[in-house]
Amino acid sequence: MKIYLFNPESGVYQGEDFTDDLPLCPGRSALLPHATTIAPSSYLRGEVPVFLEAKQQWEIQTVSAVKSRSSG
Prior knowledge:
The chain has about 70 residues and is mainly beta. It has one helix at about 65-70, and strands spanning about 1-5, 15-20, 20, 25-30, 35, 45-50, 55-60.
């Protein structure tokens, strides 16, 4: 199963990976912490997907907004 990774502090998209089924539970995957099966929306140059864990959804934000939030 394909999963999408995000930074635990900022929610910023970090790429995708795959996970295998749990050995004793066929059909159930071991989902890593700070990963989701929800694919991020497409985004343009200067934008980045940010996963909002409480809402279980991605939000597209500008890179400058994310940088200013992390440096402050």
